[in-house]
Amino acid sequence: MGYESRWSGEVRIDPPLTWTEIKNSPVVFQDLKLRLDEMVEDTATGQVRTVTAAAIAPLTTAAYNGYAIEEELTAFAAAYHATHTLAGRIQAHGPEGNQWAYSVDGPSVTRIEPTLTWPDRHDAPAFNAERVLRDYAEQLAASPDPDAGVWADVLKWAADRIHGGHLSIYANRDFVKRFAVNPYPNEPQ
């Protein structure tokens, strides 16, 4: 037994595959299926049944491993992208909450992983720790507090050692040398 997931979604086929394309398809599905649409028309000589396939879907809603899904989507896209527009996504929902999907856009099949985005303001500028420290140091120059100059020097000192929001490897050594105290005495020096 392997890792089993529940699968959802579909890949749309436009225009839908005709019955001739369905029965002569070079792709044999194991983990996917064509979603068949059937239309019955009344004619003067009787009923005419037309079967088309407008989408590819997971084989079942029950959990299964789906090991062949990416390969099947890739083979289908290679066989039909020149005559049909293919677009959509087949998503996996794993038993431990992990998820991923296969996205199809024309001949391209891509495995995608979800990303976590916190509901922050997306238009806000990225946090720049060095800039914040320098802004505080500049504001301290206008302060009447007698310790403002010392604080401004400390903030400038820290700003000079921040690279990409993190203290450089030598920041702790320089801090101990300048201020004679060590905030991380158990760390290698």
Strand order of the largest sheet: 2-3-1-4-5-6
Structural class, from helix and strand content?
Answer: alpha+beta
Could you give the distance between the termini? Answer: 51 Å
Gyration radius from CA atoms, angstroms: 31 Å
- Shape field: elongated
**Sheet of most strands:** 6 strands, antiparallel
Helix content: 25-40%
The SSE string, one letter per element, is: EHEEHEEEHHEEH
Poorly predicted tracts of residues: none
Discrete helix count: 5
Number of strands: 8
Description:
With 189 residues, the chain is of the alpha+beta class. It has two domains: 6-112, no CATH class; 117-189, no CATH class. 28% of the residues lie in helices and 33% in strands. The protein has five helices and eight strands. It has helices at 19-23, 69-80, 129-140, 148-161, 171-179; strands at residues 6-17, 32-43, 46-58, 85-93, 99-105, 108-112, 162-163, 166-167. The chain has a six-stranded antiparallel sheet with strand order 2-3-1-4-5-6. Helix 3 runs antiparallel to helix 4. The two termini are 51 Å apart.
Give the topology, please:
Blueprint: E1 6-17, H1 19-23, E2 32-43, E3 46-58, H2 69-80, E4 85-93, E5 99-105, E6 108-112, H3 129-140, H4 148-161, E7 162-163, E8 166-167, H5 171-179
Antiparallel strand pairs: 1-3, 1-4, 2-3, 4-5, 5-6, 7-8
Helix pairs in contact: 3-4
In short:
With 189 residues, the chain is α+β, with helices and mostly antiparallel strands. Helices cover 28% and strands 33% of the residues. Strand 4 (85-93) and strand 5 (99-105) form a beta hairpin.
